[in-house]
Amino acid sequence: MGRFLAKRLGSMLLAFFGMTIIAFGLIRVIPVDPVEAYFTMNQIPISEEGLASMREEEGYNRPLLVQYSTWLVDAMTLDFGESFVSKKSVTAELLQRFHVTLTLAATAFIMIVTVSLTVGIWSATKRGGFIDWLSRSFIFTLASMPSFWLAFVFVYIVALKWGLLPLMGWGSFAHVILPAGTLALGFIPYYIRLIRSSMLEEVNKPHVVFARARGVKESVIIRRHVVKGILPQLVTSLAMTCGGLLGGAAIIEIVFTISGVGRFVVESMFARDYFVLQGFIVMIGGLYIVFNFVADLLCALVDPRVRIKGDGA
Amino acid sequence: MKKKIALISSSVLVLLLIAMAIFAPWLAPNDPYATNMALKLQGFSTDYPLGTDYLGRCVLSRLLYGARVSLFIALSVLVVTLFISMFVGLLAGYVGGIVDLVLMRICDIFLAIPDFVFALVIVGALGGGIRNMFIAIVLVSWVGFARIIRNMVRSLKESTYVQYARTIGVPKRKIMIRHIVPFVFPQILLLKLIGLGSTILLISELSFLGLGVSAPMAEWGMMISDSKTYLMSHPMLMFLPGIMISFTVLILNWFGDALREAMDPKAI
Amino acid sequence: MKKLSSFLLIFALSIVAACGNLEDKKQSTSSNPKSVLTMSWVKDIGQVNPHMYAPNELFAQAMLYDPLVSYGEDGKIQPALATSWEMATDGKSYTFTLRDDVMYSDGSKLTAENVKRNIDTVVDNSAAHSWLEVVAVIDNVEIIDELQVKINLKEPYYPFLQELSLIRPLRMLADSGFPESGTTKDGIAKPIGSGPWILTDYQQDSFAEFTRNENYWGEKPKLKKVIVKIIPDAQARMMALEKGDIDLIFGSGQLAPAEYQALQKTGKYQTMISEPSSTRILSFNTTYGVTQDKNVRLALQHAFDRQTMIDYVLNGLEQEAYTLFAPGFPFSDIKLEHYTYNLEKATQLLEDAGWALESGATFRTKNGQTLTLVIPYNSGDQVHKTIFEYLQSAWREIGVEVQLIGEEDQLFKMRSKTGQYNLIMNDTWGVPYDPHMYIRTMTGDKQIGYYAQKGLAVSEQLTANIGKVIRSTDEGQRRALYESIFQTIHEEAIFMPLSYRTNYLVANNELANLSFSKQQYEVPLKNFEVK
Fold first, then answer.
1. 3-class SS of residue B120
2. 20 to 30 A Cα–Cα from C303, which one of A181, A182, B54, C17?
3. Membrane-spanning residues where (chain A) (predicted)?
């Protein structure tokens, strides 16, 4: 168990460092010179001496490896420098908006888990029925719609025409429902399919067949054996989804004008505020490690086979 | 039987979709680029079956031309990533060892960053436009498949016939081409086809943010973003391109599902 | 199953915790709702540093801080913090007498020393203000006594008082507002001003609450409070107005013409359009590609269908413009022949210059070069995009190819600075900047106006005249110089004026005494009332 976790953690840490290289490299490959961008953003006229002294000050003329290591050390202490636009610390700017995105993503997460477990298990047990077909078709149709568009349709119909929920913005729990629902919809079909197909597979496994032969009640079989069997795969997928939720939140936040991290990052991208992007990538990387580690831990706890098999690739 | 019906009817729809894109110039009732300010924001009519947009351009014609852009980019992404994923996957899976380790760790990095964020950062770095959007989508799409191929190759390597071929001294390259690629290729093609729908969604998301195609080209995501201003007064302008995207994605997803069930009911 | 439910429970708890955060956010309205106005704004107001630019919002800076002198309705300079002033006969120094009843919102009094401190901190950071001649021209500030300061200039500068009245950077911050480092280029400690409003509550990207300054030296605002809600999306603003969350949407920056008209058509609101405030112009780059050719510029002037654009893109909300500045602006009453819409003439001009349309070709060519215009625009601006998309399609008819490059704000600005364009959208700034400041940018390196004239044969002469007109202290000479400058600009066809921009507002019927300010970036909230 310990070895397995250590191995997984090791490969995730490697991925994390890879991401820091991408985050760092980003600012070197862009067509816009960060120093020049800084001058323009602050409406300071660009002069060669000014640029040179700023480069000197910021250490842009030192060897890349030196720059990277200083940057990394700063990044590890959560110091990503100052945003060009607001001139506040990038970390503060990100954290300030983070709880909004987290609320959105967490609500969507709960919606995903509850809806897909309900529909997935139900449709697997009632396989082939009309209701199974109808509910799945409905959800799959919704999932084919681009989330940003669906968001507008919801805003138009639910909020504007019916006046049921607040239109846009943030403030109360009612504000969270539409955006979180829109966000969740994109992921739900995948999980329904996953749950349904792995349950169907699980149902035919010897121990389940045996339990049924023994006369164990069907509901108990589902709960004890089948659901337990699909959990590891489900948990691992959900961990991957956490990152996707944070990414998908961006476009939802834009449409619903919620000032969360996602929208902030998109705006920073438009403003070429690269320190913010760097900080965000590193943050996502950190979260990725945490989510995946937790998922591995949960899987190993649920299913002893995972511990022994070990190879997570 | 049921599977067959699903496969046939969804293939027909996919073919119709492709035909619509190819024959757009003949199907479109008007020039999709011709503006006519005096006729802007018109409702449905015989001349303009789905009305006109904010520059008086024919909405139906633009929707038809939009199919070309989305499908063309999505299919090119498919072809290009197919080769990249095959190359990386085969290399990692067959050579193994340090090559495998390095390539898979690179895959880890790409997988750790959410697709949309990654595409956004790349387009942000390179600037908008159709070419850069294409590059960004390729960069985020190859990785998952490369890993699947690598895992397939690794299990194939252990299969008896490859083992046998190796013992009798068939060269590595020949084993790859003869025994591994023919087995892996159709499965990956299948997976890629299933993924077409999500590529189209990603294209529309980036275009919606103004990072995709440039004016005056007709593209569904951009059409949605352009009609934001008219949501209250002319909601149809916003609804129609979205319906097009939804239908396209739905048809492609359905086709993918039907194909998968027909080929191998148990896979993935 | 148990594990799953505990897993769910943890998430449910975390969300409840997160939602708790949401509820306590305060969106307060005071006990008497009648005297509170809520309006929307596009962006956060920033730190409201009176001496710096973005992300500080102009309207908020104008609410909190006062200038020494202000720009009156009739264009005359009026007393503000200074009751009177005197110019030395050589025009090289001004002595100001300050009001003795000005109190900052922290209770401190306005003194000559504080004024000197403010001006010094701006002059020390002159690099940030290089576009503004007034900062460059100030030599030093002398304290004469408690309430008298003398500003010495390096050389005479006629628009000195006008530029002192600008919303930024020469307005006064209380001593307690200065940061520890002592210089406001590092930000401010607190937004403490002497203006009609006090910033009493603020949450970044969410709202700002301004309360009437009961100790204001001038006429006090009628409203008790103004709450500014930050709503970046136009649709959301319209919906907020519809639901009564806000009372007022002020400014053309917040609503596209179509949106303004959609609200107007509902008949539920009062709507208002201002007098022309500035000019929308398209500026050529005479140093780049095909627009170096004067005939191409002239042809495009004649192929420019203002009327259609104003009727259909701007929904008739603005008036067509043929001159760089509206005739009412200082020195701008000059008779110039208009370039009228005439496609035949445009085609003829192109033919004459050798831009021929080969049979079967869509676009004109000359010596193998295609007649292509590179036009970048800010992709966030729907109106600009529409104008250019229209031009793209209209100019295709006369064989001119338009390559549109929609770019994000930052890259767009960069591109405009590097001059990689043929044509670009560029509004003038309105009073009190126009005409002298806009004209002056034509001599500044890497400015849009600079690229407009740099490629001309008469560039040197024009630059010299612009240098002279700003230094001139003689009104007659200035008039003559301006006339010659405007004449050259017109003859060389380097700018295509589109329309005189207007500002507009939409408010619910509760509000009264609504108006616009002369300065287009100011919201005259002082006069507004709630019925």
1. helix
2. B54
3. 12-31, 104-125, 137-160, 172-192, 234-256, 276-299
Specify whether the CB–CB gap between A84 and A37 falls below 8 A: yes
Phi-psi region of C341 (alpha: psi -120 to 50; beta: other; left: phi over 0): beta
pTM to 2 decimal places: 0.79
CB C155 within 8 A of CB C471: yes
pLDDT in tens, C89-142: 888 899 999 999 999 999 899 999 999 999 999 998 887 787 788 888 899 999
Interface residue B216 vs chain C (CB under 8 A)? yes
Strands C148-153, C207-212: parallel, antiparallel or unpaired by DSSP? unpaired
In a mutational test of the A interface, the residue from B104, B109, B219 whose CB has the highest number of chain A CBs within 10 Å is: B109
Closest chain B residue to the Cα of A149, Cα to Cα? B242
- CB-based contact, C81 to chain A, within 8 Å: no
DSSP characters over C371-434: -EEEEEEETT-HHHHHHHHHHHHHHHTTT-EEEEEEE-HHHHHHHHHHT--SEEEEE---TTTT
Domain ranges, ordered by start, for chain B: 1-263
Q: Which of A139, A150, A86, A81 is nearest to A111 (CA)?
A: A139
CA torsion sign for B131, B133, B139, B143 is negative
CA distances from A71 to A67, A74, A238 (A): 6, 5, 32
What is the pLDDT tens value at each position of chain A, 313 positions in all?
677 778 878 877 888 888 888 888 876 676 666 677 666 666 565 667 777 777 777 677 777 788 888 888 888 888 888 777 677 788 888 888 888 898 999 999 999 999 888 888 887 777 777 877 787 788 778 878 888 898 888 888 887 777 777 666 666 777 888 899 999 988 888 888 888 878 877 777 787 788 878 877 777 877 777 777 788 778 878 877 887 888 888 888 888 878 888 888 888 887 777 788 888 888 888 887 788 888 878 777 776 665 555 444 3
- Pairwise CB contact (< 8 Å): B216 & C392: yes
Q: Do C225 and C37 contact (CB within 8 A), yes or no?
A: yes
Domains detected in chain C = 9-43+195-274+504-530 (3.40.190.10), 66-186 (3.40.190.10), 277-501 (3.10.105.10)
CA B146 to chain centre: 16
